[in-house]
Amino acid sequence: MKRKRKYESGAATAFITRNQALRKLQLSLKDFRQLCILKGIYPQEPQKLKQATKGSGITRTFYFVKDINYLSHEPLIVKFRQTKRFMKRLTKAVHKKNDDAVARIKASRPKYKLDHIVKERYPSFIDAVRDLDDCLTMCFLFATLPTSFSVKNRSVQLCRRLTVEFQHFVITSQALRKVFISIKGIYYQAEIMGQTITWIVPHKVGYQQPSDIDFKIMRTFVDFYTTLLGFTNFRLYHSLNLHYPPQLQLAGEKDETETKCLKSEATEERLAAMTQTLKSMVTDNIEDAEVDEFPVGNPDDPDFIEKAKLESEKLNQFQNLFKGKKFFLNREIPRESVTFIIRSFGGEVSWDKSLAVGATYQESDESITHQIVDRPSVEKQFLSRYYIQPQWIFDCVNSQMLIPVEDYFPGVELPPHLSPFVKEKEGDYVPAERKQQIRRQQGIDSGVEEDDGLMDDDDDDDDEDEEEEAVEEEDDDEEEEEEEEEEDDSDENSDDEEEETPKKSKKAVKKPVKTPKPAKKPKDMAVTPGSVEKVNLNRKVQQQEKEEKRLAEMMIPKKKKRLYQTIVKSQTRRDTKIQQLKEKRKVINRRNKLAKAGGE
Amino acid sequence: MKSTGRPKPKKISKHKKKGWKTIDSTALEDFLDERSFEERTGGTISDKSNSELFFIDKQVDLTTTDGEKPNRRNKKLRCFSILEPDPRIKAVNLGKSSKSQNIKRLHPDMKKRKIDKEEKLFEAELNKFHTRNLRQRKYRKNAPNLLVKDYDLWKDLSDTPKEGEDHILDVTITKPVKPPKNHYKKPSAVPAVTDPHPGMSYNPTYGDHQNLLGKALRVELKKKKDEEKIQKETVLKKIEVEEKVKNKEVKKDKDETSEEDEEMSDEDLMSTGLNPAVRREDKKSYKQKQHDWKVKIRARQKNALKSRRIRESEVYRIKTFNKEFKEKEQITKKRMKKKQRLEKREVFKTKRLGHAKFEDADIDLQLGKELSGSLRKLKPEGNIMSDRYKSYQKRNIIPAPAGIQKRKLAHVKFYEKRGHREISEQDAAKNKK
């Protein structure tokens, strides 16, 4: 038997340091980094550092030996070596000022393809789709970069083309679900082949290159991601029967602006404008395909099919949110993002033809329903359309319905832009604005009296409760409060009327008329006719429920009592926190009210 | 008597089993073997058609001639290779074509004739080109989907023969190297694009914005606390130690002045324990050594006896042992559960992949003043590029980079000329007034 020695098995042989790997593969550090990123091989942290370092215990960058062995079979390594040789030849020729040689050598730059790696890393198409988040974010980012020494024009152009293609796919497949304007960039979420994909697009303002970044690494990522996105786009386009280098449906029509640029550039620009639909390979559309009827449903849930149908109907409605709406963008609007969103929900978009390529109709078009404006006032206004701020579009998408336009008129202080990525758990504190959104979605709030909803936040927990309370005897204070609110409402209404533009009057302002309650008579010593004692059923039921709960609590075995108590404790803690927040909100609302009154 | 000529074949009766063995069946067996081999390797050759068996080799390899030695006499000399045309060398552009100059010199009649001829030729060529182009266009119109290039990486490969179905393919095609087992495992469960904090909205609600600010504040406070701790441990402690040392030295000086040094006694030296001297008197005698050894052996025996006794009596403690085992098992189970729980969380953690430790990026936020209510006035905060870079590090894709050392600027000695100094001093005085 062979004697067992130290560091001959286990962690000591499973790991290899980066320098060792470099020597083994005979690559430079730059090439090695690039190869690792392309092949998807990541450094590891050994659990037994002392073992892996053979006793020294100094932290290093480790890789699995098996991974490095696998890397050594990569045909790309040969290309890297060729590139190294090529660079040596080129620099030599350059230094010798041998121009002929430089030209000749430059023409023979070794090129490599990454498609085999894409196939290797994503064996099935769905894997590639699932991993698209990072890819899209990087491509969208690089598409906006200015060309510089570290970022070549070619990759920027490629990224731009690929992202435009992807956006066209999202538009055609109506896959967009959520949008969010953050201070960092615009977040988008789409659902493609059942996968939710999120990506960020930077705002279109001056770009500052960060200094603490290794650009070579980022470029390598983009190299891989552009290959991935290209193949994914091809496949996605074919899933919708679209031509792959995308072709516009009305390619023949020419624009005036197009005469100023090359033909190829013009078509590219028109594609990037995203105002037109893409040409399909199939001429006849089968749009209204009905959902198949299945005779036997899920035995556990008999309404399963009905529910699914309702859901699909709802989704369909959401996907066609802006269908039939015609938008016109003013020049101060972030054109690309707004166009992308409107078009992916079925709307039509255009802008001034002097602004950019791709304008389909002009401002004077009477059929425009919404004009998007981001300035305090608009001089020339058309009566037939709404003038709104761009946030309206984002908020409509997030609340999955057309919300009333009144809050978004030019010059009006906008309601907060809520994040669609927040999912409230049961019992969490929900801010008033979000509550309003939820109610609108449920169809309880028509959206006309949104001021009310914001102001009396404290008693909008349940609308049904209010009715019940109305039957009950009310305290005098409450009544007073209500009266106050009514007064406020009427005040606000009158304000609105003053500010209102003629369009606003189109919408009938519904207002529930509350009849004032007869004042209570002073109590006298008198015999009054007896009445049947009112039995408050609701209260009784509540009492009974409470009793039952108390009994159930008593029945909890000793073992689980502690757990139960901790749960209750955490709940009460949360409730008190929510209560505090509500109180705070109340105070703020009151202060705002006072400020408003003072201002007037 | 000897028979002449060919020997007659021996007569064997074939209707008996005994006779069978003597029949020579190698030819038959060979034939059968060959046939079965052919069947195994893609059907019998005799059944196959010519096109299946042969192919026309269209590529002619001129470099080698079968079996023949290269003719030395015909071999081109290397020194003359320069005379051969090089496809990489472009033709010399003379600016004006020599042909046109020739035409110039011609007689006008001849000139006209020549030009006409050339034009005719050119026109014919052009016509040919146009007609061909038209034909192609017509063809393309009729077959619109013919020229779609296939870039499908993930196309269905079920038609192609699998391994074991086609022997030749199995043998000839080089198979891709199998990736290691953990190759498709993601290094981290952290999503590539994390959901944004609602307070990061360009127009957030008051509560959300406050939440975000609070979060950032907590991070900042923690950083400050850590820094203070380090300060306490390093700089302040150093100062303390230095002061102590100083105090001691001062004391020592005082002591030295008051008292004179005394010589250290032997006992003092012994007590210091520095290389105590080996003395002859301390050596054990033979008798003593024997005694010590005996005592040692006796103790060992006693111990062995005791342990044996204990082990024997353990039979009666089976119940307690069982109990202990159960307890131990429960503890291990608990530990395993805890480990599993930790492992679940471990997936989200950032590993230490190099010298440098990963540090999370600062939270992007805008203060209340910086927030603009409208999209037009929005001033973006944070950089997506650095955000991505950090994300890769957080997701264990690349190691955190070692801190970039700032280049130290050379110390420049400042010197002002006397004449200048007077003026600057005057200026300073003026400003003071």
From TrEMBL, chain A:
Residues 426-436 have a biased composition (Basic and acidic residues). Required for maturation of ribosomal RNAs and formation of the large ribosomal subunit. One of its GO terms (molecular function) is ribonucleoprotein complex binding. It comes from Patella caerulea. Its main location: nucleus. Keywords: Nucleus, Ribosome biogenesis, rRNA processing. PROSITE patterns: BRCT. Pfam families: BRCT_2, Pescadillo_N. This is Pescadillo homolog. GO terms for cellular component: nucleoplasm; PeBoW complex; preribosome, large subunit precursor. The keyword Secreted does not apply. Gene3D superfamilies: BRCT domain.
From TrEMBL, chain B:
Residues 244-255, 278-295 have a biased composition (Basic and acidic residues). It is found in: Nucleus, Nucleolus; Nucleus, Nucleoplasm. Pfam families: Nop53. One of its GO terms (molecular function) is 5S rRNA binding. Its main location: nucleus. InterPro entries: Nop53/GLTSCR2 (IPR011687). Belongs to the NOP53 family. Keywords: Nucleus, Ribosome biogenesis. It comes from Patella caerulea (Rayed Mediterranean limpet). Residues 256-269 have a biased composition (Acidic residues). This is Ribosome biogenesis protein NOP53. Signal peptide: none annotated. Residues 1-20, 244-300 are annotated as: Disordered. GO terms for biological process: ribosomal large subunit assembly; rRNA processing. PANTHER family: GLIOMA SUPPRESSOR CANDIDATE REGION GENE 2, RIBOSOME BIOGENESIS PROTEIN NOP53. Coiled coil: none annotated. May play a role in ribosome biogenesis.
